[in-house]
Amino acid sequence: MESKTSTSEKILDIAQSLIVAGGYNGFSYADISAAIGIRKASIHHHFPTKAELVSVLVDRYKRQAESGLESVRKQFSSPAEQLRSYLNYWQTCIRDASPSFCVCAMLAGEMQMLPEEVASRIRAHFHNLARWLTSVLRAGVEQGLFRLNNRPEEEAQMLMASVHGAMLSARAFSDPGLFTKIVTPQITKLLGQDC
Amino acid sequence: MESKTSTSEKILDIAQSLIVAGGYNGFSYADISAAIGIRKASIHHHFPTKAELVSVLVDRYKRQAESGLESVRKQFSSPAEQLRSYLNYWQTCIRDASPSFCVCAMLAGEMQMLPEEVASRIRAHFHNLARWLTSVLRAGVEQGLFRLNNRPEEEAQMLMASVHGAMLSARAFSDPGLFTKIVTPQITKLLGQDC
DNA sequence: GACAATCTTCCTACCAGAAGGTAGGCGAAA
DNA sequence: TTTCGCCTACCTTCTGGTAGGAAGATTGTC
Question: Which of residues 147 through 186 in chain A touch B, CB cutoff 8 A?
Answer without folding.
Answer: 149-150, 154, 157-158, 160-166, 168-169, 171-174, 178, 181-182, 185-186
